[in-house]
Every structure is written in C-alpha cells, then in structure tokens.
Design a protein that fits this description.
This protein is α/β, with parallel strands linked by helices. Helices cover 45% and strands 22% of the residues. The two termini are 14 Å apart.
C-alpha cells in the first residue's frame, strides 16, 4: 500500500510540543480515533502493546509505531513532527522527532509491510528528513511529504 495513497491531511501534524513517548502514543490514538471511528484507548493499548515487544524507534530520529486493530475499518497513517526530540528507546539511542504511526485492520495486514518498508526507506535519506523537520505547519509538512513521495 503506497504511502501516498494513505496520506490524509487531517492526520499530518507538525511541531507538536510533546515530551514523552507515552504522550506521543496518546496523541496518535486521539487523532487516529476520529479518522477510524475507533476507541482511542483501544488504539493506544494496541500501540503500547507493540512498543512492549520492542521499540519502534528505527534510528535517525524516526519512530514507526504501528499496530493491528480489529475495530479499524481501514488503514490510517499519522505523521507527526515534534518541537523537540524525545527519548523513544531507539535502536541507535538517538532521540526521535519524526513519527510515522500506522494503524492497520486485520484485512490489510499483508499490505502494511510494504508501507513500513517505504517509511524505512524514506528514513535513510538525511536530506529528505531535514526537509520534513523544517516544515513548520501541518500544511507545509503535508506538502513536503507529498513532494518526497512523487
């Protein structure tokens, strides 16, 4: 499932002033619950459960929290940049300031691996990450993402 096809303006949030991993997951759950018409606590619990298996901080200041959610009727991608990088227990021990959260219904699980791969590929380019980090508004972050995914 190409990233561009699941990118939605209302789920792209720039420069959030959040200071902990727990608050990031709560914020993702709140934003995604409106889009998916699901209970935000169910989303939070699923994301937290995945984090307990191992951090989704993949390095280079990027985290990809993700989960399968029985009550989701379609895939949601929440993209968030933070004002200040936070500890996310990343594999490279670097703090995280760009988050790509993926919530997937069971029927679309086969497709989400390619989506995770696309995010991981994007995370390998310092130049692309710098452009995303420079975006000061939700619209600027969305525009930058769309241009990078063309």
């Amino acid at each position: 499932m190409p990233l561009k096809s699941i990118l939605k303006a209302e789920l792209v949030i720039a420069k959030q002033d959040i200071i902990s991993k727990k608050r990031v997951l709560e914020s993702i759950a709140d934003v995604a619950s409106n889009r998916l018409h699901c209970d935000n606590e169910a989303i939070y619990d699923a994301l937290l459960g995945r984090e307990k298996l191992g951090s989704t901080g993949i390095g280079n200041g990027i985290a990809i929290p993700h989960c399968r959610l029985e009550s989701a009727n379609h895939t949601a991608l929440v993209v968030m940049s933070l004002q200040s990088a936070i500890n996310f227990d990343s594999v490279d021990k670097q703090n995280v300031d760009l988050i790509f959260a993926l919530i997937v219904p069971p029927s679309e699980c086969d497709n989400h691996l390619s989506t995770l791969s696309e995010i991981a590929e994007l995370a390998q380019s310092t130049e692309k990450l710098d452009k995303l980090r420079a975006a000061e508004t939700n619209q600027a972050l969305l525009d930058e993402l769309e241009s990078l995914l063309n």
